[in-house]
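yo

u said u wanted the structure for the complex thing, so here. seqs first:
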Amino acid sequence: MITTILNALLTPLSVATPPPNTPAIEQRYNWETQMTVFSDANPTNVGTTFGTQSFIGNPAKLVIDDTNSD
Amino acid sequence: MGEADRLPLFRAMILILTCSFDQTTDLLLPLLGDVPIFRFNIDLWRSYSWVINNSGFRLRDHIGRTCDESEVGAVYLRKLLFNPARIDVPAGGSEEDWCRHELVHVWEGIRDLSHGNAKLAVVCPSLTGGWNKMRQMRVAAGFFRIPEWQIHQGAGTCTFTEPTVVKSLGSSAVGEGSLVMVKQVDHRSLSPGFPWFVQQLVKSATHDVTVAHIKGRNFAFEFSRDGFDGVDCRIPTFQGTASWKRTTLSPEEDTAITAFMMTTGYTFGRLDFLRDEAGLWFLEINPNGQFAWLDPQGTEGLLKAVADEILLTHRRSMPGEVWDENEDLNSSR
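structre next:
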């Protein structure tokens, strides 16, 4: 009996990425140094396995980018 | 050539095409020494101005820093991400979506011009064409073990008998805020009418292994599956519960990875494997995959290897410049 539909395989995006249409991460950009500055030293749940935010404030919490493109 | 004649050459800059929240670029900048950098963050595009024509391109940032094509020695391609990454687009389109697509063309145009001028550093399109996962797996089968895989659609098309995982060929959101990630399934229960990508579950796998390849050098890291009962290591990695550690490849594995990379035509990539007692199972290569999360402190030499490649491209683009391929480009920084 066929029971598995696509919905049963999905991983909630909230696990992997910020909700759509909301700022991805609490950060600002320093134009002088051309580097990222985080308002929260240890932001959580702001990375993404899609596309990717690179990785997030706490170096222990790194995020993989699996974008298969060049 | 006198020193005065050489002086302008040293002002050649490195152009980094990325987004403002790209921390990989943040980590690389200190390793690029005193070379002028122009960081073009596509998500902040409204804070830049630019003119591009047959004579070249000129970019200007929020504080007046400029980047003339004639002064660019190397271009490093990072991440094309907007903020927010996704927007709702009506069927009829939207102005924001139109702008974003135009910007992508601008970004890719600068990339292509730079590629044509041999100024692209580290991440370069393959001259052998695209490397979709299907092509990757077929070619990689000549170098590694590949879990059996199948892409199918329609009733009765799945011929699998092995324990199976469902994967995705891309990374689009499905709606309702969800992604398809690697998940074990009973292949007999998959609904027809979806374009499935299934692969043999490697039950014997003890580790996930990821390798950053940079021009013949392989930096390998592994994550033990002890205590991990899922199949997609991205989840524990994202959640911060996965501990990736540097690992050693056998000479045969190292040779196979380098040979495979030469076949793809890529000089950079991050390759994902599973490992069991018999060695590696190839999963995929990401030609512009992330790598800095493997070496955030710069202690593994990976960040430096990427920075050195950028600096080498920068140097090679400067006429009259003499360089030593073995020179430690950022040892004093």
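The first strand of chain B starts at residue 13 and ends at 18. The helical segments of chain B are 3-6, 23-28, 95-116, 133-140, 234-239, 251-264, 302-316.
cya
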